[in-house]
Design goal:
Strands 1-2-5-6-7-10 form a six-stranded mixed sheet. It has a five-stranded mixed sheet with strand order 14-13-12-15-16, sandwiched between helices. Strands 3-4 form a two-stranded antiparallel sheet. The protein has 576 residues and is α+β, with helices and mostly antiparallel strands. The chain folds into three domains: 2-193, no CATH class; 209-299, no CATH class; 309-437, no CATH class. The chain has helices spanning 2-8, 24-32, 92-111, 160-166, 175-197, 225-230, 259-265, 284-298, 306-312, 373-384, 396-410, 416-425, 438-445, 457-465, 469-473, 491-494, 523-535, 542-574; strands at 14-15, 38-41, 44-47, 50-53, 56-60, 63-74, 116-125, 139-145, 152-156, 169-173, 302-303, 318-327, 341-351, 360-365, 389-392, 435-437, 446-447, 483-484, 487-488, 498-503, 512-517.
Length: 576
């Protein structure tokens, strides 16, 4: 979508579309062979066995303006030159983007040595306010593809003339950064070209804590990328990379963050074989690591008796709350800034009093094409009122409410009652507010071996659910029980989608086809599903919108039910 806005600023731009029998690079050469100035989208160049495809290329005289479009953001007011740190070096969070455009600039300079290449990054400027012609619904997503691309096509359908004065993009010249990086890029390119020519050349894999989330790990395939990198050290189960915050582990000599390297050098891959002596038990991270090590060896869960006091201190009613939000580069509504957050949904399960047999549930979701966050806050106030404890999992909900409070000030939203309510409620319970973070309680007082090194509710819930059969039969949670070969299926995995019937298009008969609406199972999926419901290809299909809405409500309801399940499991174990 950011690319679509950027391309719209060049209304004389031409897509590079190969003719029959042409390759993309041949089509590019044909178009650029025509003398004169011009702008091309997705031109492709191959030089010395290096291929680049440029987002936008503008030729003016003997200058080639190379534009790489990124959805990354910067603030032109507070940091107009964001790529460098205080000492003048290139910042690590920008390095990959700059290496990308350096590689492109290098190839272009080799292909057109007589031309001057001016590389620019097109970025999202968060300092700019978004006006009518640069909002989300001015960019249309189509099911066909961009020429030569594998992704969906986004086109701008607003007023291009107005967009030039209303857009939120920044074009930053990065010639100095390219000059600094180009020698290294050329050297690396030569190394990679040698490997491409001779694949038998071995590459030393950069083993590290990031391997825990390797997409080629535990995929039940003949080609196991994790095993290829780790060799015989891949066999540990659970593996050392599954240790809580393994990246902070020190080595035997006490060198901070060198512990994983020390384990690799000493051929230790099993978590249970990590020597306890190298774990710093004086720090909270070390205490958690020791707890994980002990519980993994024993196979038993740990629950701290002090957790009972923490839970007992929480005032009823108990409100278990989860939010869904979206933060996009292209704002939904005029007057917003890029990447400004909106809150579009919440779920709340409530236990009114100790020993209550009823679990109440309420929910709210926005379905109107209007800024929803203030209505969201008002609906939340109606749901949880002025008393009781709001349980959350992480500080995300508090951060979101603080963000809404800031927006109320920024937009001069005159609702002092809601503003004061947020101010009073949002602090932690121990600081006089009403919020209790269950993740914090889990980190301090609970561990289950099947959680691994994670505190995510997506790991804690299945660990508890699979080990407590009483929860399966509990009237509050029975609808989440699905049996599998290994016992109870993870409730998130058990969520079901919907099948809709839709008329076939462009067919001579009247047969129907089935359309699957996938279940939402994580926060990113919720954000994308919301976007699809509000602004996607099927936004005018009432039946499809209703099905998508049901998937969002189903997922968010489980998120809060999951907190109740965990809370109830703890109460059972503590005899409370």
């Amino acid at each position: 979508m950011v690319e679509a806005l950027a391309r719209a600023l060049f209304d004389d731009g031409v897509w590079v579309v190969p003719n029959s029998g042409e390759t993309p690079e041949q089509a590019t050469a044909r178009l650029l062979a025509v003398p004169g100035d011009g702008v091309w989208f997705e031109p492709t160049f191959v030089v010395n066995d290096m291929l680049v495809r440029v987002d936008i290329l503008q030729r003016t005289g003997n200058v080639l303006r190379l534009i790489e479009v990124k959805a990354a953001s910067f603030d032109s007011i507070s940091d107009p030159t964001p790529f460098r740190g205080k000492q003048g070096g290139i910042l690590s969070n920008w390095r990959d983007y700059l290496l990308d455009i350096t590689y492109q600039a290098n190839a272009l300079e080799l292909a057109y040595p007589e031309m001057k290449v001016e590389p620019e990054l097109c970025l999202v400027d968060k300092a700019k306010t978004c006006h009518e012609e640069a909002i989300f619904n001015k960019v249309e997503l189509l099911i066909d593809k961009d020429p030569g691309s594998t992704g969906p096509r986004a086109i701008y359908n607003g007023d291009v003339v107005a967009l030039r004065s209303q857009h939120f993009l920044g074009f930053l010249n990065v010639r100095a950064e390219v000059d600094e990086l180009i020698a290294g890029v050329r050297s690396t390119s030569k190394t990679l070209l040698k490997i491409s020519a001779d694949p038998s050349i071995e590459i030393e894999p950069p083993l590290g804590s990031k391997c825990r989330d390797c997409e080629y790990r535990n995929i039940n395939s003949l080609r196991n990328g994790f095993a290829e990198c780790w060799g015989e050290l891949a066999a540990g189960d659970p593996h050392v990379v599954d240790l809580f915050k393994i990246g902070f582990l020190a080595d035997a000599a006490g060198n901070s963050k060198e512990g994983l390297g020390w384990l690799i050098n000493n051929r230790i891959s099993k978590l249970v074989e990590i020597p306890a002596k190298i774990i710093d038990k004086t720090k909270s991270t070390g205490k958690r690591q020791i707890r994980q090590l002990e519980c993994t060896i024993s196979g038993k869960e740990f629950i701290d008796p002090q957790l009972a006091d923490e839970l007992a201190a929480c005032e009823y009613p108990l409100h278990f709350v989860d939010f869904e939000t979206s933060r996009l580069a292209v704002p939904y509504h005029k007057g917003m800034q890029p990447y400004e957050q909106i809150a579009f949904q919440f779920s709340c399960h409530t236990i009114l009093k100790p020993g209550d047999k009823e679990l109440k549930h309420c929910e709210w979701i926005n379905v109107a094409d209007a800024f929803p966050s203030f209505d969201f806050a008002r609906a939340l106030r109606d749901a949880i009122g002025d008393s009781g404890t709001m349980f959350v999992w992480s500080d995300f909900e508090q951060t979101t409410l603080r963000d809404i409070r800031r927006q109320m000030t920024s937009y001069n939203h005159a609702d002092k009652e809601i503003a004061n309510w947020i101010d009073a409620m949002v602090p932690d319970r121990k600081d006089g507010g009403r919020v209790q973070d269950l993740l914090e309680l889990c980190a301090e007082h609970y561990y289950h071996p099947k959680m691994g090194g994670s505190l995510s509710i997506k790991y804690v819930l299945p660990a508890i659910w699979g080990s407590n059969e009483n929860l399966w039969r509990d009237p509050w949670f029975a609808k989440y029980f699905r049996e599998s070969l290994d016992g109870a299926l993870d409730p998130y995995s058990a969520l079901t989608g919907l099948i809709l019937e839709a008329e076939k298009n462009n067919l001579s008969n009247n047969e129907n086809k089935e359309v699957a609406v996938e279940a939402v199972r994580d926060g990113i999926g919720a954000m994308r599903t919301y976007q699809e419901m509000m602004y996607g290809l099927s936004r005018s299909d009432a039946k499809h919108r209703d099905a998508v809405k049901k998937m969002l409500l189903q997922y968010c309801e489980l998120d809060t039910a999951a907190m109740v399940i965990i809370w109830k499991h703890w109460m059972m174990k503590l005899g409370a």
